[in-house]
Amino acid sequence: MEPWWKSAVVYQIYPRSFADSDSDGIGDLRGIINHLDHLAGLGVDVIWLSPIYPSPQDDNGYDISDYQNIDPLFGDLHDFDELLAGVHRRGMKLIMDLVVNHTSDEHAWFLDSRSDKADRKRDWYWWRSAREGMEPGTPGAEPTNWAAAFGGSAWEFDEKTGEYYLHLFSRKQPDLNWENAEVRHAIHTMMRWWLDRGVDGFRMDVINLISKDAALPDGRVSSAPVFPDSSAGYVNGPRVHEFLQEMHECVFAGRDALLTVGEMPGVTIEEARRYTDPRRREVDMVFQFDHVWADRGDDPWQLVPFRLTNLKAILGRWQEGLAEGGWNSLYWNNHDQPRAVSRYGDDSPAHRVASAKMLGTVLHLHRGTPYVYQGEELGMTNYPFTTIADFRDIESLGLYAEATGLEGRPPEEVLTVLRARSRDNARTPMQWNSSGQAGFTTGQPWLPVNPNHVRINAADQQNDPDSVYHYYRRLIELRHNEPAVVDGDFTMLLPDDERLYAFTRRLGATELLIIGNFTDRTVRAEIGDAAAWSSAQLVLTNLATPPVNLTMEPWQAAIYRRSVAR
After folding, report:
1. What pLDDT shows up at residue 547?
2. How far apart are CA 187 and CA 226, in angstroms?
3. N or C, fewer C-beta in 10 Å, the chain?
């Protein structure tokens, strides 16, 4: 029997930006409870909550100071239990964001670890002395040349003990030492505690970074970046499969109907097959990043024109690579990516609705489990940022400081890129209605509401049968009811066409043809067997006028179905 999650659709909630029930300007659990019917009406099967644990909020909750409680910003465990019951009552599941590559530097484990070199939790984190012959705490004395993802060195000097601790992200996010069996046992115990409470699984943040090369070797030096590439020391490390198999055995074995998702930056297709091979008992699916780098070049501070052929090559490679085994997550948006309709579509008033629907069509008809990020089902767009003062994201602020300082780049050049790519684009408040703060809060929102909420909001779209919301509802319904969408073979068509994204899915005697026009021009799909496909059943299109002879209007999408000989 096929796993239930293969035909499921996951909806990601970024709690601080979803709905605020107490007017403090920050979304909370009760706000989510108040909008569960929006999600149930959409037809999604799983809700993924970004972190809601106690946290200093240095990285908006991905710096956890207590794994077994709820941050007062969002509510308490009573609120969580009510939310979980409401989700289950509506026939949906709920998975938690699990961040165990690192903790907050305010977690009790780390407070003990940094208190004394002799503390029993000292080895729960990665501590190292300064480079030989260097004065501790001085520039260049860091144990290795590793860089942090948010800028600067990956090592922070601790004056009290005279050593450095490793942090692959913020200095307030020290990396846990998974080589220590006590660390792993503590994490497994915590995970079982949440599952016993009724949680349906976990999305595991940067889980393929948990195993480091114990020698912590220097990264490869090149002339381009300020810091060398040190990823070989921690991406898909030497014991990562062992650690995940142990986790499965200690936490998930014997429990039914769970979902485990591994977010894995830098994962290869070959590695993804290993991670998701059910016989290996590691994770159910990977969350990889290849396709969201399709519009980036070697220089991170230069915007590269989007080329559809690059995107097709990447997504097609993953479809082929996991065809015989393994499973992938399908997404355009999440809390770390700018809005898809602004990135790959056309967010102008003339084409926003059509291009948002087209993007949804192309993505949801691939093989894999689709993810909808909050607001994507409305066609929400990037925010009109003006100055660096408009940004809140720690990554954007850190990279801006590094680029304009150490690298000496012009501020406007850096801002141009941040406006297009910053994670804050995804984190502006959910647009519920056309009122002053989009129905998100009656207070002052932690991040400004996009002014276009007067035109783009859930209330209007739920009352409009031709809205993006209702189109997404139909896409989700199609996945639930058409087996070829879930299990069909994938064949890419027109791989060299910069205008059209076209492919087929086939299962038994059923074949689907999917075409998406990524331009504002009328384009005919020149595919083999075009005449026969023109007379096939049109399952769904995003415009009022169906295509004629596979001629696609600007940003049009179409799904055809026909019966074929087995």
Report:
1. 97
2. 35
3. N
156 is annotated as an active-site residue: no
Token reading at 62: 């991905």
Residues facing residue 496 across a β-bridge: none
**Candidate list 105, 142, 205, 393, residue with the active-site label:** 205
Q: Choose among 559, 543, 552: nearest CA to 356.
A: 543
Report how far apart, in Å, the C-alpha atoms of 71 and of each of 76, 134, 207, 388, 506 are.
7, 41, 23, 28, 47
Burial of 279 (0-12, 13-18, 19+ CB in 10 A): exposed
Q: How far is Cα 71 from Cα 37, in angstroms, rounded to an integer?
A: 24
What CA–CA distance (Å, rounded) separates 483 from 506? 9
Question: What is the rounded distance in angstroms from the CA atom of residue 71 to the CA atom of residue 391?
Answer: 23
Residue 238 in 3-state DSSP? Answer: coil
Q: What is the pLDDT of residue 226?
A: 55
Exposure string for 302-322, b = 16+ CB within 10 A, e = fewer: eeeeeebebbbbbbbebbebb
Q: Quickly list H helices, 56-144.
A: 77-89, 108-115
Evaluate if residue 346 carries a pLDDT over 70. Answer: yes
Between strands 163-166 and 155-158, the pairing is: antiparallel
Rounded Cα–Cα distance for residues 292 and 288 (Å): 9
Write the CB contacts of 84 (distance below 8 Å, at least 6 apart in sequence): 94, 197, 198, 199
Which is catalytic among the residues 71, 263, 282, 402? Answer: 263
Do 441 and 429 form a contact (C-beta atoms < 8 A)? yes
Least confident of 160-164, 326-330, 394-398, 437-441: 394-398
Instruction: List, in order, residues 6 or more apart from 472 with CB less than 8 Å away.
Output: 42, 360, 372, 376, 377
pLDDT higher than threshold 70 for residue 225: no
Decide if 28 contacts 350 (C-beta within 8 A).
no
Residue 366, CA atoms < 13 Å, CB-side half-sphere: 27
Q: Are strands 201-204 and 259-263 parallel, antiparallel or unpaired?
A: parallel
3-state secondary structure of 241: helix
**Residue-wise pLDDT tens digits, 71-92:** 999 999 999 999 999 999 999 9
Cα–Cα distance for residue pair 544/359, rounded to 1 Å: 17
Contacts of 9 (CB under 8 A, 6+ apart): 43, 44, 45, 46, 364, 369, 370, 371, 372, 476, 479
What single-letter DSSP state applies at residue 307?
-
User: Residue 399 pLDDT more than 90?
Assistant: no
179 class by beta-carbon count within 10 Å (0-12 exposed, 13-18 middle, 19+ buried): middle
Q: CA 92, CA 364: separation in Å to the nearest integer?
A: 19
Place of tokens 């994507």: 376
